[in-house]
Design goal:
47% of the residues lie in helices and 14% in strands. With 322 residues, it is an alpha/beta fold. The chain has one domain: 3-Layer(aba) Sandwich (Rossmann fold), CATH 3.40.50. This is Pimeloyl-ACP methyl ester carboxylesterase.
Length: 322
């Protein structure tokens, strides 16, 4: 008679094997449905994928759009890039390991400073001069790192519901698991994609609370790409390694000299406006703080016109300062 533990072990292995197959099928389907839409720019050790949009006669400095966690450049293109590209050259980049960008140094590329350096390298290869850097959520730390470490390439800075300072507590449990070396690989290689695909539309809708958000957001922004095992793991590393990074970076914000606007909503339950936006606004001389009401975390959609107006204001200030 076969021991019960052996039977259980076999059943577990069968289910894990099925989950691995399901994950690979889902990932392949997601990639087929969301092919690269931009250009690939070589950087040290790999490449960045980005969208380079411009009218026939661009005005003012180029606009660099950097997306937050659990998304890719399409999120910023749909929200802001297509409209901004009526007047400006717009560069919307997949951060390293996201969308179709590579992750040259693995977990080391979770550092916002390292991501800013790779983005700055890509801009140099494209021959882009100074840019107005726009970062949403987690990319607030990346945009701030860009302004600090690449001041010569920074014409202005716009932070949208940004993460900039240390916060109490940790991160969501599934990010913590996915970021771990061994358990993380097992987690993202088996259960994450099937569960994520099942909840994708609902999760996307919830991120716009208290407003509804675009009905076709997940499709238009290729949101499903984050469910691929490698990208989800890299995304988790970005989130897990963010707190120790901003602990060190937060003391440097007073060195930012570019025209700056910071926008956040009073009811943001994802990133605390008091801990982050209002704090960095006090540190940057001359920064304009715009406090919105009832717009939640996805302010680049929920308060699109206000965000576009501030980007244009900073671009105009940058042109005057130049």
């Amino acid at each position: 008679m076969i021991p019960a533990l052996v039977v259980i072990a076999v059943l577990v292995l069968v289910h894990l094997a099925a989950a691995v197959v399901a994950t690979r099928v889902i990932a392949a389907r997601i990639e087929e449905q969301n092919p690269p839409g931009g250009v690939f720019v070589p950087v040290t050790g790999g490449h960045l994928h980005l969208y380079d949009l411009a009218p026939a006669a661009p005005a003012g400095p180029a606009i660099l759009l950097i997306h937050g966690a659990t998304s890719n450049a399409r999120d910023m293109v749909v929200a802001l890039g297509e409209e901004l590209a009526r007047r400006h050259r717009v560069i919307a980049v997949d951060r390293p390991g996201h969308g179709w960008s590579s992750r040259p140094r693995g977990r080391a590329d979770a550092s916002p400073a390292r991501q800013a350096a790779l983005i700055a390298e890509a801009l140099r290869r494209l021959g882009v001069g100074k840019v107005v850097v726009v970062g949403h959520s987690l990319a607030g730390a990346v945009a701030a790192a860009f302004a600090l470490d690449h001041a010569e390439a920074t014409a202005g800075l716009v932070l949208l519901a940004p993460v900039t300072h240390p916060w109490p507590g940790g991160v969501t449990w599934y990010y913590d698991i996915a970021a771990r070396p061994v358990l993380g690989r097992l987690f993202v290689g088996t259960v994450m994609a099937p569960l994520g695909a099942w909840q994708l539309e609902a999760s996307a809708k919830a991120s716009f609370a208290p407003l509804a958000g675009p009905a076709d957001y997940a499709r238009r922004t290729a949101a499903g790409l984050v469910l691929r095992p490698a990208e989800f793991r890299w995304n988790a590393q970005d989130v897990a390694d963010l707190l120790p990074f901003v602990r060190k970076q937060a003391a440097r914000y007073g060195a930012i000299g570019a025209p700056t606007a910071i926008l956040a909503s009073d009811d943001d339950t994802v990133v605390s406006t008091a801990i982050h936006a209002t704090a960095i606004a006090r540190q940057i001389a001359g920064a304009r703080l715009v406090l919105l009401q009832g717009m939640g975390h996805q302010i680049h959609y929920n308060a699109r016109e206000a965000v576009l107006a501030e980007i244009e204001r900073v671009a105009a200030d940058a042109t005057t300062a130049a």
